[in-house]
Amino acid sequence: MTGDGMGPPPGPAQEQLLTLTVDEHDDAVVLTLTGEVDGLTAARLRDAVTWALAELDGRVLVLDLTAVGFLGAPGLRLLFDTAALAAMVPGYRTLRVVVDRNRPVPGPLEITGLDKVLALYHEVSDALAG
Protein backbone atom coordinates (compact mmCIF):
# COMPACT_ATOMS: atom_id res chain seq x y z
CA MET A 1 0.00 0.00 0.00
CA THR A 2 1.06 3.55 -0.25
CA GLY A 3 2.98 4.93 2.68
CA ASP A 4 0.68 7.95 3.09
CA GLY A 5 -2.30 5.92 4.28
CA MET A 6 -4.12 6.34 0.98
CA GLY A 7 -5.22 3.37 -1.03
CA PRO A 8 -7.43 0.35 -0.61
CA PRO A 9 -7.55 -1.31 2.78
CA PRO A 10 -4.94 -4.02 3.27
CA GLY A 11 -6.05 -7.60 3.70
CA PRO A 12 -5.63 -9.55 6.90
CA ALA A 13 -2.04 -9.58 8.17
CA GLN A 14 -1.92 -13.37 8.05
CA GLU A 15 -2.78 -13.50 4.34
CA GLN A 16 0.40 -14.08 2.40
CA LEU A 17 -1.08 -15.28 -0.89
CA LEU A 18 -1.49 -11.85 -2.48
CA THR A 19 0.18 -8.52 -1.92
CA LEU A 20 -1.28 -5.34 -3.43
CA THR A 21 0.68 -2.14 -3.91
CA VAL A 22 -0.69 1.17 -5.15
CA ASP A 23 1.48 3.72 -6.93
CA GLU A 24 -0.32 6.90 -7.92
CA HIS A 25 0.99 9.05 -10.78
CA ASP A 26 -0.36 12.28 -12.25
CA ASP A 27 -1.78 10.36 -15.21
CA ALA A 28 -2.16 6.81 -13.83
CA VAL A 29 -2.95 4.60 -10.88
CA VAL A 30 -0.75 1.50 -10.90
CA LEU A 31 -2.01 -1.46 -8.92
CA THR A 32 0.75 -4.08 -8.59
CA LEU A 33 -0.13 -7.63 -7.60
CA THR A 34 2.32 -10.15 -6.18
CA GLY A 35 1.31 -13.71 -5.46
CA GLU A 36 -1.77 -15.70 -6.36
CA VAL A 37 -5.17 -14.59 -7.63
CA ASP A 38 -7.65 -17.30 -6.74
CA GLY A 39 -10.86 -17.84 -4.78
CA LEU A 40 -9.18 -16.79 -1.53
CA THR A 41 -7.73 -13.52 -2.81
CA ALA A 42 -10.14 -12.38 -5.53
CA ALA A 43 -12.40 -10.47 -3.12
CA ARG A 44 -9.47 -8.42 -1.82
CA LEU A 45 -8.39 -7.69 -5.37
CA ARG A 46 -11.95 -6.72 -6.32
CA ASP A 47 -12.01 -4.22 -3.43
CA ALA A 48 -8.68 -2.75 -4.54
CA VAL A 49 -9.81 -2.46 -8.18
CA THR A 50 -13.11 -0.87 -7.15
CA TRP A 51 -11.20 1.67 -5.07
CA ALA A 52 -8.74 2.37 -7.91
CA LEU A 53 -11.53 2.89 -10.45
CA ALA A 54 -13.18 5.39 -8.12
CA GLU A 55 -9.88 7.28 -7.76
CA LEU A 56 -9.00 7.52 -11.47
CA ASP A 57 -10.40 10.99 -12.13
CA GLY A 58 -9.51 10.72 -15.81
CA ARG A 59 -6.29 8.80 -15.23
CA VAL A 60 -5.27 5.40 -16.61
CA LEU A 61 -5.61 2.27 -14.49
CA VAL A 62 -2.61 -0.04 -14.88
CA LEU A 63 -2.84 -3.52 -13.39
CA ASP A 64 0.67 -4.95 -13.06
CA LEU A 65 0.42 -8.75 -13.04
CA THR A 66 4.10 -9.45 -13.76
CA ALA A 67 4.65 -10.94 -10.28
CA VAL A 68 1.48 -13.05 -10.23
CA GLY A 69 2.37 -16.72 -9.94
CA PHE A 70 -1.14 -18.11 -10.37
CA LEU A 71 -4.23 -16.67 -12.06
CA GLY A 72 -7.30 -18.81 -11.44
CA ALA A 73 -10.85 -18.55 -12.75
CA PRO A 74 -11.91 -15.96 -10.13
CA GLY A 75 -9.02 -13.72 -11.25
CA LEU A 76 -9.92 -14.13 -14.91
CA ARG A 77 -13.52 -13.22 -14.15
CA LEU A 78 -12.34 -10.20 -12.18
CA LEU A 79 -10.25 -8.99 -15.13
CA PHE A 80 -13.25 -9.36 -17.44
CA ASP A 81 -15.50 -7.51 -14.97
CA THR A 82 -12.85 -4.81 -14.45
CA ALA A 83 -12.67 -4.15 -18.19
CA ALA A 84 -16.46 -3.74 -18.25
CA LEU A 85 -16.51 -1.51 -15.15
CA ALA A 86 -13.62 0.61 -16.37
CA ALA A 87 -15.48 1.36 -19.59
CA MET A 88 -18.27 2.97 -17.52
CA VAL A 89 -16.07 5.25 -15.37
CA PRO A 90 -16.66 8.94 -16.22
CA GLY A 91 -13.53 10.44 -17.74
CA TYR A 92 -12.09 6.97 -18.14
CA ARG A 93 -9.36 6.72 -20.75
CA THR A 94 -8.22 3.12 -20.71
CA LEU A 95 -7.38 0.03 -18.70
CA ARG A 96 -3.92 -1.40 -19.24
CA VAL A 97 -2.72 -4.78 -18.00
CA VAL A 98 0.96 -5.64 -17.69
CA VAL A 99 1.98 -9.30 -17.97
CA ASP A 100 5.35 -11.03 -18.11
CA ARG A 101 5.80 -13.34 -21.09
CA ASN A 102 7.48 -15.95 -18.88
CA ARG A 103 4.92 -16.10 -16.07
CA PRO A 104 1.75 -18.18 -15.87
CA VAL A 105 -0.63 -15.26 -16.55
CA PRO A 106 -0.57 -14.89 -20.37
CA GLY A 107 -1.64 -18.50 -21.00
CA PRO A 108 -5.01 -18.28 -19.23
CA LEU A 109 -5.64 -14.86 -20.81
CA GLU A 110 -5.08 -16.34 -24.27
CA ILE A 111 -7.12 -19.48 -23.61
CA THR A 112 -10.12 -17.46 -22.41
CA GLY A 113 -9.80 -14.82 -25.12
CA LEU A 114 -9.18 -12.03 -22.61
CA ASP A 115 -6.02 -11.13 -24.52
CA LYS A 116 -8.40 -9.81 -27.21
CA VAL A 117 -10.40 -7.74 -24.67
CA LEU A 118 -7.59 -6.28 -22.55
CA ALA A 119 -4.83 -3.90 -23.58
CA LEU A 120 -1.77 -6.00 -22.69
CA TYR A 121 1.76 -4.70 -22.17
CA HIS A 122 4.99 -6.39 -21.09
CA GLU A 123 6.46 -3.46 -19.12
CA VAL A 124 4.84 -0.99 -16.73
CA SER A 125 6.76 1.83 -18.44
CA ASP A 126 5.16 0.87 -21.78
CA ALA A 127 1.70 0.78 -20.20
CA LEU A 128 2.25 4.21 -18.68
CA ALA A 129 3.41 5.58 -22.02
CA GLY A 130 0.42 4.04 -23.78
UniProtKB/TrEMBL annotation:
Family per similarity comment: Belongs to the anti-sigma-factor antagonist family.
Entry-linked CDD domains: STAS_anti-anti-sigma_factors (cd07043)
Ranges annotated as spanning the membrane: none
InterPro entries: Anti-sigma_ant (IPR003658), STAS_dom (IPR002645), STAS_dom_sf (IPR036513)
Lineage: Bacteria, Bacillati, Actinomycetota, Actinomycetes, Pseudonocardiales
Domain STAS: 18-130
Protein name according to UniProt: Anti-sigma factor antagonist
GO molecular function: anti-sigma factor antagonist activity
Classification via Gene3D superfamilies: STAS domain (3.30.750.24)
Organism: Amycolatopsis iheyensis
Domain of life: Bacteria
